[in-house]
Structure formats: C-alpha cells, structure tokens
From TrEMBL:
Record-linked Pfam families: DUF3159
Keywords: Membrane, Transmembrane, Transmembrane helix
Segments crossing the lipid bilayer: 43-64, 76-93, 113-135, 156-176, 182-204
UniProt-recorded name of the protein: DUF3159 domain-containing protein
Length: 220
C-alpha cells in the first residue's frame, strides 16, 4: 500500500511538471503581448498616429517571428501570429480608430471560448486532447471515465480565461480606450495564462480519485 501511494505521488508530481511545461505558454503569451504593446506605444508617442503604431507592431511582430523561426518554431504558427498583427493594423487604418487594432484579438478570444465549450459538450474536452497528445497517450484518456470528467471540468477554467478577456476588452473597445486596451493586453496575457494553468491543474487533480495513477496512466 505504501509503495503504491509513493508511486502515485511521484506520478502526480511528474504529471504536474509536464502539465505546467506544456500549458504554461510563457514564451507564446509574452510574444502575443509585445506587438499590441508596440502598437499602443507607437500610437501614443507618435501623436496618436495609427500608421506609426501599425508599423511598430508589425516590426516587433516580424522580429519575434524571425527569432522564433530560428529557435525552431513551426512556420505556420509564426505566420498566423504575424497575420493577426497585420490584420489588426489594416483594420485600424481602414476605420481610422486605433482601438480597432484589437478587434482580431477580441474575435479570437470569442472563437476560442466557443470552441472550448463545444469540445466539452461533445465530450472531447480540448484540454484532454492537447495534454493526451503531448503525453503520447492519444485517445486512451477518453476511455477513462475519471480522466474524461476531470479534463471536462478543468477545461471550463480555460473557457473562463477567454470570458474574462472579453469582459474587459469589449467595454474598453466600445469606448475606444486604446491606451487601456494596451495595458489590459499585458495584464490579461501571461499573468492570466499562468493563473489559468494553476487553477486548471488544481481542478484536474481535484476531480480525480485519490487512487488514480495520473495523467500518464489512463485506466482503460
């Protein structure tokens, strides 16, 4: 019994570390916040010029993209990130409203929340898909009722993350508060992701029975 408990505890620690490393997303979260910050700073110090803000955001996004490519990031992911920055700049230039630079981010958060909710509803919670794939367990976690339930509950934390952003971003966008949107982008990127990872890990472990062998060992 003691040996079994020690094995379970060791597995839990290993799972936690893997979970944090996989979903922490520190680099990607910081990367995502830098172009909007560059836009906000360029817009403000450039005399509220959307052109200067757009150039600053695209320049920073390109530098980050190039650096990530050198570090081995997937080209498609880098391209999508850069296109999101470019799209935001083009929309703001088109409408003449600097706050519209953040529209693609509002849309992506709304879409992400919807996709996560659908995944929970159809019993394919995205948290399980991502973690199960990364741990090399494929679809086996779905045949474990305890893991399926735990991943579903923990996935709601990620839905909440997107909902929090929308609750802050939408009112600020409606009043055209470009400076406040820039600050909110920083606060609600890496710090919020870190909190989301910690809370979803807690929800995941709390939902599993005490004798469950862990994320790496689905009961099939």
């Amino acid at each position: 019994m003691t040996h079994q408990r020690e094995t379970t505890d060791e597995g839990a620690v290993d799972d936690r570390d893997s979970f944090m490393q996989l979903l922490g997303g520190r680099n990607s979260a910081i990367d995502a916040s830098l172009p909007p910050v560059a836009f906000g700073l360029g817009w403000f110090f450039g005399g509220e010029s959307i052109e200067i803000g757009g150039v600053a955001a695209i320049a920073v996004g390109s530098i980050i993209g190039g650096y990530r490519l050198v570090k081995g990031a997937r080209p498609l992911a880098v391209l999508f990130s850069l296109l999101a920055v470019l799209l935001g700049a083009l929309i703001a230039l088109r409408t003449g409203d600097a706050s519209d630079f953040f529209l693609p981010r509002l849309a992506s958060n709304a879409l992400s929340a919807l996709v996560w909710m659908i995944s929970i509803g159809v019993r394919w919670p995205l948290l399980g898909v991502v973690v199960g794939t990364a741990l090399g367990r494929g679809k086996t976690w779905r045949r474990d009722p305890d893991l399926l339930k735990a991943y579903s509950r923990a996935s709601w934390v990620w839905v909440g993350q997107y909902a929090v952003r929308l609750a802050v971003f939408i009112p600020l966008w409606l009043v055209g508060a470009t400076g406040a949107l820039t600050i909110a982008q920083v606060v609600l990127t890496w710090p919020l992701v870190a909190l989301c990872v910690a809370v979803s890990w807690w929800a995941l472990r709390k939902s599993l029975p005490a004798d469950h062998p862990g994320l790496r060992h689905p009961r099939t």
